């Protein structure tokens, strides 16, 4: 059994980082899913690690980030996570510990500080984006590990693009509470009297820039989970399939 995945080239070019996102070939990554453990075992075999060397989020569209260590290995993969303690991002300075999130149109954000040797993996749906979860990640990297935001490299992985992401007035109003008028003009385009097109990538990027990450250290994508294919492979999209279980695994790890 082989898991099909693709890297984030700009981060892997450092020679110190492994990154990945999966396709619809392998869609079971939550603890409760059939075949999830088998998928993690197969992926681990490809990466040279075991499921005990992996940690997964318990996502509920929060702005919470958890700092994890080797002791958390297997969380969300070999054992269930606490439903009452959700978190949508992970940070570590451990080597050979794979940080995992799952998406199906939401934005995966990969962070790497090559100076302090710290990584983070964040799940940022529209709710997480409006709560600026990427800002929380940067602040935690800075506060816990003394990371300088100017050193941090951030990559925005595949997600639903602005041409495909139609939302209503309620979502627009939520963003308008926390983003300024100029930013709102970059994030939203009116489609008709009732609907807007939301550019999640631009919203995340604005948050990264305002928290000290430099333009040259932000890597964006043109791959849309809703309509794109990569080498003939589709990506998981809730908007396209309406599946409550099909998910794309997104992950980052530092090598020894």
Question: Can you summarize this structure?
Answer:
The chain is an alpha+beta fold. The protein has helices spanning 9-12, 36-47, 126-130, 133-145, 169-176, 181-187, 200-210, 238-241; strands spanning 5-6, 17-22, 54-56, 65-67, 89-92, 98-103, 107-113, 118-124, 153-156, 166-167, 188-190, 196-198, 218-219, 229-230, 233-234, 248-254.
Describe this structure in words.
By secondary structure, the chain is α+β, with helices and mostly antiparallel strands. 25% of the residues lie in helices and 25% in strands. The chain has eight helices and 16 strands. The strands form four sheets. Strands 4-5-8-7-9-13 form a six-stranded mixed sheet. A five-stranded mixed sheet has the order 1-2-16-6-3. A three-stranded antiparallel sheet has the order 10-12-11. A hairpin with a 4-residue loop joins strand 7 (107-113) and strand 8. The longest helix is centred in the middle third of the chain and has 13 residues, at 133-145. It is globular and about 50 Å long.
Chart the SSEs and their pairings.
Elements (H helix, E strand, L loop, with lengths): L4 E2 L2 H4 L4 E6 L13 H12 L6 E3 L8 E3 L21 E4 L5 E6 L3 E7 L4 E7 L1 H5 L2 H13 L7 E4 L9 E2 L1 H8 L4 H7 E3 L5 E3 L1 H11 L7 E2 L9 E2 L2 E2 L3 H4 L6 E7 L2
Parallel strand pairs: 3-6, 4-5, 9-13
Antiparallel strand pairs: 1-2, 2-16, 5-8, 6-16, 7-8, 7-9, 10-12, 11-12, 14-15
């Amino acid at each position: 059994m082989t898991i099909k995945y693709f890297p984030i080239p700009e981060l892997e070019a450092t020679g110190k980082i492994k990154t990945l996102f999966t396709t619809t070939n392998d869609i079971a990554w939550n603890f409760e899913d059939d075949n999830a453990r088998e998928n993690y075992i197969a992926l681990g075999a490809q990466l040279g690690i075991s499921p005990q060397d992996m940690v997964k989020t318990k996502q509920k569209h929060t702005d919470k980030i958890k700092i994890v260590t080797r002791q958390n290995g297997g969380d969300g993969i070999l054992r269930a996570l606490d439903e009452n303690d959700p978190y949508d991002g992970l940070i570590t300075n451990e080597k050979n510990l794979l940080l995992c999130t799952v998406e199906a149109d939401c934005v995966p954000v990969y962070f790497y500080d090559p100076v302090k040797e710290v990584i983070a993996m964040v799940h940022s749906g529209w709710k997480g984006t409006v709560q600026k979860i990427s800002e929380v990640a940067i602040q935690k990297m800075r506060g816990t590990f003394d990371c300088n935001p100017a050193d941090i490299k951030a990559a925005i992985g595949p997600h639903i693009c602005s041409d495909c992401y139609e939302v209503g007035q309620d979502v627009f109003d939520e963003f308008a509470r926390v983003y300024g008028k100029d930013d709102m003009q970059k994030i939203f385009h009116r489609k008709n009297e009732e609907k807007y097109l939301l550019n999640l990538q631009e919203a995340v990027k604005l948050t990264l820039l305002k928290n000290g990450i430099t333009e040259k250290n932000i890597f964006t994508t043109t791959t849309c989970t809703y309509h794109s294919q990569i080498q003939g492979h589709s990506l998981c999209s809730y908007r396209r399939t309406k599946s409550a279980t099909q998910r794309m695994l997104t992950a980052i790890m530092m090598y020894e």
